[in-house]
Design a protein that fits this description.
Blueprint: H1 9-13, E1 19-25, H2 27-38, E2 42-43, E3 53-61, H3 66-73, E4 77-86, E5 89-101, E6 104-112, H4 114-121, H5 134-145, E7 149-163, E8 168-179, E9 193-196, E10 199-205, H6 211-217, H7 229-235
Antiparallel strand pairs: 1-10, 2-7, 3-4, 3-7, 4-5, 5-6, 7-8, 8-9, 8-10
């Protein structure tokens, strides 16, 4: 068994880093930015008839709310685990480990089966003991020794665009909702409540942000936010 620890700098150095910027925007902003962006960037290939798709995530935390405290405290090095799937399609579920180090974002993921997910929701954590899947083993270890448990579900509508230069991904997230009924994670009819009456513009890129994208999105005019869907959901 290999136990990965976030505060080992070589772990992050060996992973691809991403810059991540977030901004609150209103309906007028969205309409203008979307029109400009569509002229230069490609819509996400998984977008539906409405131009987007539904994201549902289940976040893990311990009984001391470690992930919430780390975020609110502004720690430069932190991590969180989540399960995620899209458009009620439970045939493709991923476990993701998202970490922050020195203002850069890192993400690892691995696919899990619906059967593994159901077992996990029932507290049958042995389903994660998969030697050829280090990320599953890491979550299993931290469930045992850090008392991580499924804590909160977040769901929202996402509209995404990709721009090749700089590996840029721009997303508009809206209708952000939450539920603490974690055992209903795979239930398409799960009841949720509104968590935030806002739209979030997210910009992710590798080494540089092309000027054309910076100008279209008017980055210099906007106030950046540290918005966290998971934290907002926990505070509702």
């Amino acid at each position: 068994m290999v136990l990965y620890v976030l505060d080992k700098p070589e772990r992050c150095e060996n992973m691809n880093s991403r810059h991540e910027l977030k901004y609150h925007i209103n309906a007028s902003d969205y309409a203008q930015l979307r029109a400009r962006l569509q002229a230069v960037a490609k819509p996400d290939e998984n977008a539906g008839d409405d131009g987007g798709y539904i994201v549902r995530s289940l976040y893990f935390d311990n009984y001391s709310d470690k992930a919430v405290v780390e975020k609110l405290s502004g720690l430069s090095r932190r991590e969180k685990f989540r399960l995620r799937y899209y458009n009620d399609d439970t045939s493709f579920i991923r476990l993701e480990r998202k970490s922050k180090a020195n203002r850069l974002s890192y993400k690892e993921n691995v696919a899990i089966t619906e059967e593994q997910c159901l077992a996990l929701l029932k507290g049958e954590y042995e389903c994660l003991k998969t030697p050829d899947a280090p990320l599953l083993m890491e979550l299993y270890t931290k469930i045992r020794y850090q008392n991580l448990r499924p804590r909160s579900i977040m769901e929202y509508h996402r509209e995404a665009y990709n721009y090749l230069a700089g590996n840029v991904r721009v997303t508009f997230d809206s209708n952000i909702r939450t539920s603490n009924n974690v055992t209903s994670f795979l239930n398409p009819h799960m009841t949720t409540i509104s968590a935030a009456n806002t739209m979030i513009l997210e910009i992710k890129y590798d080494g540089f942000l092309p000027d054309i994208i910076r100008d279209i999105l008017q980055i210099g005019w906007r106030n950046q936010t540290e918005f966290s869907k998971y934290v907002i959901g926990r505070l509702v």
